[in-house]
Amino acid sequence: MPDHKNPLRTQKGLNGSNQASPRDATLSGSKQPTKTETALPTSEPLTPTERALPDSKHPSQTETAISASTPPSETVPFRGTGFEPGELRAAPWIVFTAVFLLWEAGSRTGVINPMMLPSPSQVGESLWSLVESGELWRHIAASLYRMIMGWSLGTFFGLLTGLAVGMFTLPRAAGLPLVNALFPIPKIALLPLFIIWFGIGEPSKVATITFGVFFPTVINTYCGVDNVPRSLIRMGQSFGLSRIAIVRRIVLPGAMPGILAGFRISASIAIILLVAAEMIGAEFGIGALILSAGNLMQTDLLLAGVLLLSLLGLSIGWLITRIERWVLRWR
Questions:
Q1: Element (H, E) at 53
Q2: Cβ-based burial of 12 (10 A; exposed 0-12, middle 13-18, buried ≥19)
Q3: Phi (first) and psi of residue 35, to 5 degrees
Q4: For position 158, what pLDDT does the model report?
Q5: Residue ranges of the domains in the chain?
Q6: In the chain, at which end, N or C, are there fewer CB atoms within 10 A of the end residue's CB?
Q7: CA-CA-CA-CA torsion for 289, 290, 295, 301, nearest 10 degrees?
Q8: Residue 193 near residue 262 (C-beta atoms within 8 A)
Q9: In angstroms, what is the C-alpha Rg of the chain?
Q10: Under a CB-based contact definition with an 8 Å cutoff, are residues 273 and 188 in contact?
Q11: How many Å apart are CA 97 and CA 146, to the nearest integer?
Q12: How remote is the C-alpha of 19 from its chain's centroid?
């Protein structure tokens, strides 16, 4: 007996098929899956740890496939040395020893004329004779006095001028062109003028060294101050630091690498001007010793004086290096 109360079941029985009508699908609220949805693989259920992660932390199926297909990368060795030079303490001694041995061998075999270039042993004998006679200490004491006085005065005034030029507008506008105009002048050319002004004694020699040291100190100090980040100075002003505190705590530490580089340059210039000044009207001094030995054709004594100048330069360089390591230990 047909069921008149359920027309859908009657229609299904009449058609003799299991397919539902469109009205049946609409009434049931089901959605037929498309081919694309059927082809996609079903994802595995998330673990409790993965459920705790935010949605952005869950890897997608594409990322999982890419990571599975990518081979593991090889470990890249560290090559970032940063061009940092190391120390080879034995290298200088090896170089100097090789030079002196070749020099000595050339002098003894006659390859080098001993009148033109005496052997190191002859130079050492002349230097020892100066030690025994006591003249060596007179020459060294006179040269050190002139150099220390001239270098100290030139460095002091150069630091003050460089700081003023680097920090303030008026000194920079007025002083920097003057420094740039006078710096290229050879200071040895002004030695006769200093002799006229200060006499032929010690003041003229000290003034020559002071004038030569002043300009490289000004330029290096000015450049060092100019390279200090202005944001640090403004920050110090914002915290209420005084001008002296800003200079002492911010400007000087930031400019110190440039200032110490200027010390090396000015020390070399001081040695050059020292020899030039002592060759004019000086009785004692390394420059006077070299000039006297050259006039008498005593090349061994002349080279002994040159050796003293070299040792003086090495000593000053070593001292400045120690000062750099102590002052710039924060780097």
A1: none
A2: middle
A3: -65, -40
A4: 94
A5: 123-327
A6: N
A7: 90
A8: no
A9: 43
A10: yes
A11: 32
A12: 86
* Distance (Å, whole) CA 228 – CA 164: 14
Listed as ranges, residues in the chain with pLDDT below 50 are: 1-31, 33, 35-41, 43, 52-53, 56
User: Which residue matches tokens 């008026």?
Assistant: 170
Q: Which token pair is 25? A: 């699908």
d(CA 128, CA 134): 10
First-last CA distance in the chain = 103
Residue 236 and residue 81: Cα distance in Å, rounded? Answer: 35
Give the pLDDT of residue 27.
Answer: 41
pTM of the model: 0.69
Residue closest to 282 by CA, chosen among 144, 134, 142 = 142
Tokens of 29: 């609220």
> Tens of pLDDT along 121-177?
889 888 898 898 888 899 999 999 999 999 999 999 999 999 999 888 898 888 888
Q: What is the pLDDT of residue 114?
A: 80
**What CATH fold (topology level) applies to the domain 123-327?**
MetI-like fold (1.10.3720)
**CA 168 and chain centroid, separation:** 26
Q: What is the pLDDT of residue 22?
A: 43
Q: Which two tokens stand for residue 286?
A: 């390394």
Q: What is the DSSP letter of 317?
A: H
* Cβ neighbourhood burial of 94 (10 Å; 0-12, 13-18, 19+): exposed
Contact, 272 vs 133, CB < 8 A? Answer: no
Task: Output the CA–CA distances (angstroms, integers) from residue 231 to 151, 235, 322, in the order listed.
Answer: 34, 6, 30
Classify each residue of 216-250 as buried b or exposed e, where b means 16 or more C-beta atoms within 10 Å of its C-beta.
bbbbbbbbbbeebeeeebeebeeeebeeeebbeeb
Helix axis angle for 135-167 and 120-133, nearest 10°, is 100
CA torsion sign, 258 to 264 to 269 to 270?
Answer: positive
The tokens describing 160, both together, are 């003050």
- Residue 171 and residue 231 in contact, taking contact as beta carbons nearer than 8 Å: no
